[in-house]
Amino acid sequence: MQTNSHLAAIDVGTNSFHLIVVRVNENGSFEIVDREKEVIRLGLGSSPDKKHIQPDAQERAIATLKRFKTIASSYDAVIRAVATSAVRESLNRNEFIQRVYDETGIEIQVISGIEEARLIYLGILQAVPVFNSKVLCIDIGGGSTEMIIGQQGRMLFAKSLKLGAVRLSQMFFPDFEVSKSAVEKCTNWVSGEIYSTIKEIKKIGFETAVGASGTIMAAALMIQAKKSGSMPENMLLNNYQFHQNDLQKVTDAALKKASVKERKKIKGLDEKRADIIPAGLIILNTIVKALGLKEMTVSGYALREGTILDFMHKMRPLERKAGIEDIRMQSIQKLAEMCNYDKAHSQHVCTLALQIYDQMEQVHLLSPENREYLEAAATLHDVGYHISHSQHHKHSYYIIRNAEILGFSENEIEIIAQTARYHRKSYPKPSHSDYSKMAEKDKTVIRKLASILRVADSLDRTHASLIERIKVNVDPKTIHLTLFHNSEYPEIELWNLERRKTLMEEVFSREVTVSTEKDGLKEAANN
Known about the structure:
- The chain is of the alpha/beta class.
- The chain folds into 3 domains: 5-110, ATPase, nucleotide binding domain (Nucleotidyltransferase, domain 5), CATH 3.30.420.40; 114-300, Nucleotidyltransferase, domain 5 (2-Layer Sandwich); 327-524, Hypothetical protein af1432.
- The chain has helices at 55-74, 85-89, 93-104, 113-125, 165-172, 180-204, 214-228, 244-255, 260-263, 277-291, 303-315, 327-338, 343-359, 361-364, 369-380, 392-402, 410-421, 433-436, 440-458, 491-500, 502-508, and strands at 5-12, 16-24, 30-39, 78-83, 108-110, 135-140, 145-151, 154-161, 208-212, 240-243, 295-299, 467-474, 478-485, 511-518, 521-524.
- α6 (180-204) runs parallel beside α10 (277-291), α17 (410-421) packs across α19 (440-458) and α19 (440-458) runs antiparallel to α21.
- 47% of the residues are buried.
């Protein structure tokens, strides 16, 4: 990345879409040079139990994303777009994502609730001086609420709850009219949903609380306007503190106004949020009271800024900022250890797989991030043994797909899980439902990575690390593997390779041939 280059982050949210464009400085910091926001209500119109992104919402989304792309392109900015709750839970998300790509060229990455929490924490650390504190971060969006406890850049706890201002408005205030009965039902619902999370947070403990994003920013602006008697000059507060009693006052005042028309007159409240603010304030006030918070600090940065920082981190792997850990592989390693994996075997298979991958760059033509997917899949390929020896490759898929793996998008996790699933037995087939749902380019990635992983795994069939390293030579007709082994001849490995090399031969349209070498003496094997 060049000095003063530009990056753009797009937050495809349930309530609104946000764009920020930043200039990245040589010292690793960034400055926001442009920002845009549009209320889209992507989740509106779907029933809470069966979610689809409606055609009119898709039209609004695409029109906005086209405009965002034009703005980002004026800075020659590289774009990263992340989608949260509404897209994450939508039954037609793949069709929507494909349509966005076809019409705008923007590739949306769907992130899990836990990954969303991590990025929010990263963003908050750039705006509020709480790096060394044990801080509780709360972010209330349109479809979900994230609660994180972190210290010195490490997440100690994270939870994503299906509580959002749009979601609860649909459930309890479908016509956006407020009644005493609806307020009571909504409050009771929130109390029940947060109960176990609040219990965990109190057990872990924290020193200070920071709030971010729409509902909390709106509440802070309302409090500031009520205290000053006028509209705030800056609609984006940062490091502003409000007290619980002030929050209670604006919540009570807002809930007394039955109609949207009345709520639009509330000082400090964006008119576009007047319909969903009752649900948002109920969520916030219920959480604050349950935790016994006396005050909260507002962060002007959250998911978007965290996305930028994470983007910078991934684009500059050799210049990683102090205090920001390689959370992706740490998360993979943690999952492997939780499943009591065979560390020596998995690490050796990973080493062999990456040796093959690196020496086949001119043939597989995959982008750099795919190497990391292979590394993750190789590390985790046998975690399914934690459930059962039989069909363990399928169990590996299930475990990876449903684990809380940080740093990867939902689609990236799917690629890793499927690569691990196809390390043995059946090849990827159109009849496999999970595979058939993938975009064509992702199917190609999975087939290539799985073919490499199958070969690498076959070369440690005895789990004895007999093959020390591999040399790969590729010509138009063959992929020749020279296997350097230790004192013991790898007879079982060679037998196993013959059975499992076919996918590689099909994917790369070349015959896989093999020779072995020990102490400089070549031995023909299975030519």
